[in-house]
Structure formats: C-alpha cells, structure tokens
Predict the structure.
Amino acid sequence: MKNRRKSPCGQSLVETALVLPLLLILLGGGYWFYRNLSLSSSAESASHAQMLRAGRRLAGIEPRLSGTIHPGDNVAHIEAHNDPLIGEVPLFRGLAGRTTASADVSLGKEPVGAFLDLPSHALRRKAGGAVDCWGKETPSGSTVRRTVQGILLTGVLR
C-alpha cells in the first residue's frame, strides 16, 4: 500500500515571492558595499601616490590617478601640497615639512532598474608624510647642505 501525500499547490510559489525580494536586496547591498570598498581603497592608493610625487617635487599625474579610481569625468579630484617647517627648526628655514594629499570621490546614484537606484558614494581619503628625502636635487637638501657647510666652515675658522 503506497502512501501518497498531497503537497500544497502554491507553497513554493509563495516562498519564492517572499524570498526573492530579500535576496535581491542582499545582492544589491553587497554590490554597493563592494563598490564603496573598491572606491575607498583606490582613492587611498591615489592619495598616497600623489603625496609621494608632490613631496619629491615630481610632475603631477592627477588625471591618470583619477582615471584609476573611476573612468568618468568629474568623479575624483586629487590635490597635494607641502607644508614648510618655518619656525620649527631655526637654522633650517624653508625646509620641506609634511606633504599632504587628498582624494575626493563623489559618484552619484547608480540606476539599477526601473524603480531602484543604489545610494551615491561620497568619500575623502587623505595621506600625509614627510616625503622630501633631502637629496641633492631637492630644495631642502640644498638648504641642509649649505647650512651644514656654513657651520663646518665657521668651526674651521675658529
């Protein structure tokens, strides 16, 4: 004797209708989170690269760096500047101090479908450090060299 059990006719359809929107929301949120993480790490890498180039007084490559973050126009803005050590070290006026660079990324809402837009991305990443290595070609290097030579010559003349 076979025991046949009747399954509910529409249960799987109802379960699919309830679970599918949740699954789509999870996938969309995962995509947005990955996109934000990717933009954040790219912006941080670009700000470090610009900080090193600006600190060593090399030509800026801001358009190329912003293209590595996102290929769209007006999405990423990268800038850097050197803060001198004026007043902090009396004998070595005009030395390059701390170099700071920042990358600003603002990406608008991304349309996913007819009724859904993912939230926008707006982030700022900064990098700072003492980059000028005081080599022969740098202004800080020539200032240090002249000051040390002056101190040595003054000591020899005594």
Remarks:
- The chain has one domain: 20-153.
